[in-house]
Design brief:
This protein has 113 residues and is mainly beta. Helix content is 0%, strand content 54%.
């Protein structure tokens, strides 16, 4: 069974940092394209970033470029999102997703003073 489990969310002050993790199982992680997608309160889904594990090519939304870094540890079957210089508008539920439409349950990130 394909599973994605996010962790690492929480409450952080503006300007702070968080690292999200997504533990993957049930598929060949090193051959997959993985993404982070978020949903802010009352808003639709927003794509944040993607990585192709087999090539390490990375892609970012303009809203997070230069502040967020996506990465993988293929030995641990884990996807990461390092988030720096966080802003209030980054407040959202963050989901990791696998190509083919499999999603995790999400982790809440709240940026507030």
């Amino acid at each position: 069974e394909v599973q994605l489990v996010e962790s690492g969310g929480g409450l952080v002050q503006p300007g702070g940092s968080l690292r999200l993790s997504c533990a993957a199982s049930g598929f060949t992680f090193s051959s997959s394209a993985m993404s982070w997608v978020r949903q802010a309160p009352g808003k639709g889904l927003e794509w944040v970033s993607s990585i192709y594990s087999y090539s390490s090519n990375t892609y970012y939304a303009d809203s997070v470029k230069g502040r967020f870094t996506i990465s993988t540890d293929n030995a641990k079957n884990t996807l990461y999102l390092q988030m720096n210089s966080l802003k209030s508008e980054d407040t959202a539920v963050y989901y990791c997703a696998k190509d083919g439409g499999v999603w995790g349950q999400g982790t809440q990130v709240t940026v507030s003073s």
